[in-house]
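Lab notes, practical 5.
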Amino acid sequence: MEQKENDTVELLKECNAGCKSATNSMEQVLGFLQEGKLKTLILKYNKDHIQLGDECHRLLNQENAEEKDPSMMAKTMSWLGTEMKMMMNSDDAKVADIMVEGCNMGIKSLEKYLNQYQAADSKSKGITKQLITLEENFRDELYEFL
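Output from the prediction step:
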């Protein structure tokens, strides 16, 4: 596999795994929320992450490549950390804080992968940048709930 093709596949896998991590976290905190602006916001961004993840999945299929799931350890640690924080305090400000932390981690990781997989094609780089923008917008909209 040539470098461009390899970097393209790896970047798409990381974006897809990132979308899955984000939706897992959003779906986890939704159970702690009452109806309201924050719940509506999280539902909107969850849908957007699912759509972008589906696009990554479609492109990976075109490359005959397998998806990458977040590691079981990362999923478990994230789930436990969120559950502990939510048991101690499940108000909107705590939920927003957890989501902001996740957005910042996602942005940082995606920027790292863009630098790491520089030979990736423009389409996969574009999806990565789209996901970064989605995370930035979500984070910025969450600030009003902190």
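Observations recorded by the TA: The radius of gyration is 16 Å. The chain has one domain: 3-145.
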